[in-house]
Amino acid sequence: MPVPVSEKFHLININTGDRLRPGDVVSARIKAVLPNGRFRLYCNGRILTAKSSLTFRAGDLIRGRVEQTDRGLFLHLLTGGSKGNRDPSSLEMPRIMLFAALMRAGLPFSGDAEAQRRVALLNRTRGSQRRVARLYAELLAKGSDPGAAFLESVDGMLSGGGDGQGSKRWPSSPDSEELQGELCGDSAEDSETADKSDTLLTLISNVPGKNDTWMFKRLIRQLGEGELRMVWKIRHGINPALALTVYDGERTFEFLMEGLEKTQMAVYAGDGVDIDEKKWNIFRETLALMNVDVDDTLLPIGRSDGFTPGSDKAQQDLEGRV
């Protein structure tokens, strides 16, 4: 059972029994940060106002037990709940994350017993739960029922793993045709330097799914004095999608695209990445001319599910319903 910690929210303008009862354990999302230590929370289908001396950001999730005192209702945070400036993706309810991932993979929700088994497996799997949940759902769509260790292995491969020894050198940044050739062909040089991670990704890619099939490809290349690692996820079909994750040793970027007639793109970045506003606007305007709608802002990579844009909305739509 979760244990209370010495952190709490004072719930303002709410009466006992109004969907919240003393003893209830609830989850809430920080919807907005207000002046004077106040916050707007989304909890149990309602928007609540609360006051706290703690530091949180909009989007953070918290979990706590409702307590009645002489001063009113308080929400005492529990261990495992969100704390200020922590990655919200690792703290969200695993059940909601898994159901959102199943929905986005085109799979139905399973029965209670099966859902509990899958959520328990997700809890045992190390890594960002949002990303692992989506990977789990996509492997289920391919007819697989992986264990936690297998999930961790594949997630590691898709997160830039591999030694990269003997990788091919690019004398300069490749143009679109060169990059297409790299993705579509398996050269003898690549076959000689590929590690077992690439072999497993190829095997997974070749397994047909219940819906449109995702294919996976890794490229590790020497560019200048540094090493560039790229992971591609490509989904063909009537609703195509492309996910590209790029690591250059210091920075991480992720570009998620989905849709054919109306293509949506979200761009995520790791900690400490700062993009010049002028360059960002030029990037968005250039893609807009290609009928690609890029989200307004660069998003923290912890909010990505690694496959398609909009994972935040999918989870928010399920809050209070599962």
Largest sheet: 8 strands, mixed
- Secondary structure class reads alpha+beta
Which outline best applies? globular
- How much helicity do the residues have? 25-40%
Compressed to H and E, one letter per element, the order equals EEEEEEHHHHEHHHEEEEEHEEH
- Proportion in β-strands: 25-35%
**How many independent structural domains?**
2
Number of discrete helical segments: 9
Description:
This protein has 322 residues and is of the alpha+beta class. It has 2 domains: 4-86, OB fold (Dihydrolipoamide Acetyltransferase, E2P) (Beta Barrel); 90-318, no CATH class. The protein is 29% helix and 30% strand. The strands form 2 sheets. Strands 7, 8, 9, 10, 11, 12, 13 and 14 form an 8-stranded mixed beta sheet that branches. A 6-stranded antiparallel barrel has the order 1-4-3-2-5-6. Strand 8 (214-223) and strand 9 form a beta hairpin. It is globular, with a radius of gyration of 22 Å. It starts with a strand and ends with a helix.
Features:
single chain; 322 residues; alpha+beta; OB fold (Dihydrolipoamide Acetyltransferase, E2P); six-stranded antiparallel β-barrel; 9 helices; 30% strand; globular
Summed up, what is this model?
This protein has helices at residues 94-104, 112-124, 129-141, 148-157, 176-184, 188-193, 196-205, 277-288, 311-318, and strands at residues 4-12, 25-34, 38-43, 46-51, 61-69, 72-78, 169-170, 214-223, 226-235, 241-247, 252-258, 263-269, 292-294, 299-300. The chain is α+β, with helices and mostly antiparallel strands. It has 2 domains: 4-86, OB fold (Dihydrolipoamide Acetyltransferase, E2P) (Beta Barrel); 90-318, no CATH class.
